[in-house]
């Protein structure tokens, strides 16, 4: 197994800590996390040091990769402190919307930048990251980013940076839609009079089991759906409601469009 590169993680919040958990499972060589929050201090452990500020990074630490995982709104304040690593490290920005051009401007120096969009299943190495490498990224740096991002799940590369906006809407935010579906299934169970514990158990295990079946099966999602849908049966009735033109197809189209637009708004 290839070792993971030494890295500096800027922002150990929900996504940063999820990636770190995935890297830990894989076997991390050396990481420094910069994050001022008390919660992030708990991320310290074998091979992982947490500091509150960039000024506390030990002199001489030369990360191979700098992962920018602060909120897009914190970027202007946070990024300039890391310009000094631009000579040696590849920068991997996971900030929603922020373009390579914006990250370069905020760093204040030319840098090798990969713009990537992971998702929180990275914590259990079941994530998907879609990434774009800017021109300044060398093949060695791209391979290094591929190793790091691929250590938390699947990785795909795109040649067109603009695709990262719909990617952010679909796979970046996607786990939230699946968790909402779980919540709605549970609520529907309660509405039908099921005991709360049973409604919760059914909703969770239905989503977990369906995902596992999708992962294990050679069939695609549509075939697996058809296998549940007996002609003239109960599921057919439910799907007629959900698949009506003004129901899920419209909602998903509009939701993904809204999130894609928000990603574009966050670009600068
Ligand atoms: N959550 C997700 O599912 C995904 C998020 N992303 C992207 O990841 C990035 C982080 O999102 P998320 O983890 O959800 O957000 P969080 O708010 O959970 O994490 C950001 C962390 O950065 C810390 N922070 C704030 N300022 C600084 C600073 N100057 N230096 C270092 N750390 C700082 C915050 O501390 P404090 O709370 O004290 O401000 C917080 O712990 C965003 O850009 C987002 O677009 C990408 C893919 C998926
Ligand atoms: O909601 C957000 O802006 C981030 C990006 C994708 C998931 N979370």
Automatic annotation (TrEMBL):
It comes from Acidocella aromatica. Belongs to the pyrroline-5-carboxylate reductase family. Residues 161-266 form the Pyrroline-5-carboxylate reductase dimerisation domain. Residues 9-97 form the Pyrroline-5-carboxylate reductase catalytic N-terminal domain. Keywords: Amino-acid biosynthesis, Cytoplasm, NADP, Oxidoreductase, Proline biosynthesis. One of its GO terms (biological process) is L-proline biosynthetic process. Its EC number is 1.5.1.2. One of its GO terms (cellular component) is cytoplasm. It comes from the Bacteria. NADP(+) binds at residues 69-72. One of its GO terms (molecular function) is pyrroline-5-carboxylate reductase activity. Its main location: cytoplasm. The lineage of its organism: Bacteria, Pseudomonadati, Pseudomonadota, Alphaproteobacteria, Acetobacterales. Catalyzes the reduction of 1-pyrroline-5-carboxylate (PCA) to L-proline. It is found in: Cytoplasm. Pathway: Amino-acid biosynthesis; L-proline biosynthesis; L-proline from L-glutamate 5-semialdehyde: step 1/1. This is Pyrroline-5-carboxylate reductase. It catalyses: L-proline + NADP(+) = (S)-1-pyrroline-5-carboxylate + NADPH + 2 H(+); L-proline + NAD(+) = (S)-1-pyrroline-5-carboxylate + NADH + 2 H(+). It is an enzyme of class 1 (oxidoreductase). InterPro entries: 6-PGluconate_DH-like_C_sf, NAD(P)-bd_dom_sf, P5C_Rdtase_cat_N, P5CR_dimer, Pyrroline-COOH_reductase.
């Amino acid at each position: 197994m290839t070792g993971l590169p030494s890295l500096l993680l800027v922002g150990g919040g929900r996504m940063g800590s999820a990636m770190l958990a995935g890297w830990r499972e894989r076997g991390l060589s050396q990481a420094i996390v910069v994050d001022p929050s008390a919660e992030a201090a708990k991320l310290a452990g074998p091979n992982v040091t947490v500091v509150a500020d960039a000024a506390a990074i030990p002199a001489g630490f030369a990360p191979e990769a700098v992962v920018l995982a602060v909120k897009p709104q914190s970027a202007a304040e946070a990024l300039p402190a890391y310009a000094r690593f631009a000579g040696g490290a590849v920068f991997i920005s996971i900030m929603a919307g922020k373009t390579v051009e914006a990250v370069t401007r905020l760093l204040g120096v030319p840098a090798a930048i990969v713009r990537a969009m992971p998702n929180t299943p990275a914590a259990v190495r079941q994530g998907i990251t879609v990434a774009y490498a800017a021109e300044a990224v060398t093949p060695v740096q791209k391979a290094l980013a591929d190793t790091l991002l691929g250590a938390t799940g699947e990785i795909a590369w795109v040649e067109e940076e603009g695709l990262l906006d719909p990617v952010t809407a679909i796979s970046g935010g996607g786990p939230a839609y699946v968790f909402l579906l779980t919540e709605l299934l549970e609520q529907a169970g309660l509405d039908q009079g099921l005991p709360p514990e049973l409604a919760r158990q059914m909703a969770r295990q239905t989503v977990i089991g369906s995902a596992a079946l999708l992962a294990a099966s050679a069939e695609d999602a549509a075939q697996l759906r058809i296998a549940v849908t007996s002609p003239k049966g109960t599921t057919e009735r439910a799907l007629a409601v959900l698949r009506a033109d003004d129901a899920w197809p419209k909602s998903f189209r509009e939701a993904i469009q809204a999130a894609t637009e928000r990603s574009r708004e966050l670009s600068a």
